[in-house]
Amino acid sequence: MVLLKQRSCPECSGEMTPKLINMLYKKECSEIQVDVIGIPANVCNRCYYRIIPGKIAKYIDSIIDPIFTAEMNSKESLLPPPHIGIQFPFNNNYACYHSNEIRVQ
Ligand SMILES: [Zn+2]
Description:
- 19% of the residues lie in helices and 39% in strands.
- The protein is of the alpha+beta class.
- The protein has a single domain, classed as Ubiquitin-like (UB roll).
- The longest helix has 20 residues.
- Bound molecules: zinc ion.
- Zinc ion binds next to loops.
């Protein structure tokens, strides 16, 4: 279980709010774009700096890294690099909003 706690922004010391965010993952060595929707993160109210908990970031990397690897290892360009969408559905069993925190199991 990962707990997003109220904390202040490391960039501007502004207040941060736990939110579900969307991220576009790209790599320099690949044309593939992966849109990941519904990631729990702390977001700064002032400068929009975002912090994704390490465990969650690692889990997302473990899902999308093989996609990039498969594309980089393909020797023929059969199709243009795909745009991929991954959506984590909002589920009360996994993410609970309290006043200032999100709990993720
Ligand atoms: Zn900030």
